[in-house]
Amino acid sequence: MRVVNALSSFRLALVFCRSLPLGDDVVTGDISGITGSHSAHSGEEDALNSQALVPHVTEREKDESFQREENAIVVESTPKEEASIHEVTGTIQIPERKPLCDVSDQRVDVCEMYGDVRIPGNSSSVIFMEPSNAAPKELWQVHPYPRKGDEACLAGVRELTVKASSEAPQCTFRHDVPAIVFSVGGYTGNLFHDFTDLLVPLFLTARQFDGEVRFMVTDFKRWWIAKYLPVLQRLSKYPVIDHDRDEEVHCFKQVIVGLRAHKEFHIDPARAPNGYTMIDFTKFMRRVFSVGRETLNCIEDLSARKPRLLIIARKRSRAFTNVDEIVAAAEELGYEVVVGEADAGTNLARFAQIVNSCDVMMGVHGAGLTNFVFLPLNATVIQIVPWGGLEWIAVLDFGNPAKEMGLNYVQYSISIEESTLSEQYPRDHPALTDPMSFHKRGFHVVRSTFMANQNVKLDVSRFRDVLWKALEHMMQ
User: Fold this and answer.
1) How far apart are CA 144 and CA 8, in angstroms?
2) What is the pTM of this model?
3) Could you give the strand order of the β-sheet that contains 308-312, starting from the edge strand earlier in sequence?
4) Distance between CA atoms of 445 and 50, rounded to whole angstroms?
5) pLDDT tens by residue, 279-288
6) Least trusted range by pLDDT, from 19-23, 274-278, 312-316, 394-398
7) How far apart are CA 295 and CA 314, in angstroms?
């Protein structure tokens, strides 16, 4: 984000208002004689009646209020609907308004506005209306996608200008619910990023409104909206607005630009509305896709059936080269084994049912493990960490989130002999003897060396202990 001019401005506090006419014309800062008509399109939300928002104040209430507030501004309407302002003796205390945008978070910049907020369709502007005589205006440039500082990611995210101004186009569509503006550009299409960059932050930002909120989406991808439509429909009762192609001037009383996000695949209850947790998120996702089991009750569930193991089998990099051996070893221990993979084209609802029917899920570090959100509480996740000093990212992306979701977590780091890198490099190559030296050269080097060009051949004798540990979790 670049802050072009972020100075605090002030809002005029009006204590008594009666019959103050409001309109959609460009605001000039003079509150007297504002005129204009409201318009809305048939079949859409009813236009707001601005005058209905102004309370009627009786003379008695006015006298009582004078006694409570010596420092006040009174607005009276004349027969010509021209407001005259009378200053009461004493010093006027004008509250300071917070900046429109919060740039303090390391992961995301979020702007939140209350009042008259106008969003012209197919534009890069979000306009917070203020009188022309207000303090110096604010102007912020933001990417409404929670990957702050990731230039490669944000290159695919439309930059928006959030500003305070006394001039804006007339409203053509007024809404009586808040709006959340966000992008589905960036890294969308990767299942892990779909969740950690968008679905978790969207839940964190929108769930508090209980469906009474509208989504305005930039960098609109129809296939992405279709894939996650059940989630979007559960969070909002209204159709998604394609901001890039829309031609209306949408007006709201509350707008949030950007999605609130904490750490990777994480919700901090202390910072979340209503104290939301990752358990709340996974419970929400299971209900969205109507999966059956909320909790794994080990004694009851396993008394009449075998424990069910799901192996996430990748097809490209970090793939298992001996799946059949792994299946045989698991079956010897008493597991019923299911092998599957969920990629960008997988029917998410159908795969969610498969995941939820399993007690243990295992896979090499990668986006496929994201499906653990559909596991029942108390199930177990086994993450196989490829060679290359990748334990830190394994814990960050899936280890810590699994525990926060109420799952048991087991981590297995492969040996050199279990990596196909041992076939690509001589034994004295730094990739095998000093993998951490690659980390010093940047993550792109780590990715190309250890993530994009490595497959896994599990030592099933060594891995048997891990499968036993998962069984022990179920017996506790």
Assistant:
1) 22
2) 0.78
3) 336-340, 308-312, 360-364, 380-385, 408-413
4) 58
5) 999 999 999 9
6) 19-23
7) 27
Token pair recorded at residue 323? 């799946």
Q: Please list the residue range(s) of the chain that carry CATH number 3.40.50.
A: 286-475
Long-range contacts of 418-422 (CB under 8 A, 24+ apart): 418/387, 418/456, 418/457, 418/458, 418/459, 419/386, 419/387, 419/454, 419/455, 419/456, 419/457, 420/321, 420/454, 420/455, 420/456, 420/457, 421/387, 421/388, 421/450, 421/453, 421/454
d(CA 1, CA 423): 45
What would the two tokens of residue 187 be? 């890294």
For 57-110, write each residue's pLDDT tens digit. Answer: 333 333 333 333 333 222 222 233 333 222 333 344 434 578 999 999 999 999
Dist. CA 146–CA 126, nearest whole Å: 18
Provide the residue type at 232 as one letter.
Answer: L
pLDDT above 50 (res 396):
yes
Q: Which residue has the tokens 């707008």?
A: 255
Alpha-carbon distance of 271 to 97, in angstroms, equals: 22
d(CA 157, CA 340): 32
Tokens of residue 154, six digits: 């944000």
CATH architecture of 286-475: 3-Layer(aba) Sandwich (3.40)
85: phi then psi, degrees, rounded to nearest 5: -105, 130
Please tell me the distance from the alpha carbon of residue 32 to that of residue 86, in angstroms, as a whole number: 13
Burial class (CB in 10 A: 0-12, 13-18, 19+), 266: middle
Q: What 3-state class would DSSP assign to 206?
A: helix
User: Would you say the C-alpha torsion 400, 402, 403, 408 has a positive or negative sign?
Assistant: negative
Q: Which two tokens stand for residue 380?
A: 């177990």
Q: How far apart are CA 455 and CA 159, in angstroms?
A: 38
Question: Residue 9 corresponds to which tokens in the numbers above?
Answer: 């401005």
To 5 degrees, how large is the angle CA 376–CA 381–CA 382?
A: 160
* Cα angle 119, 122, 126; round to 5: 25
Q: What is the per-residue pLDDT for 98?
A: 85
Closest listed residue to residue 455, CA positions, set 364, 369, 371: 364
Six token digits for residue 339:
């092998």
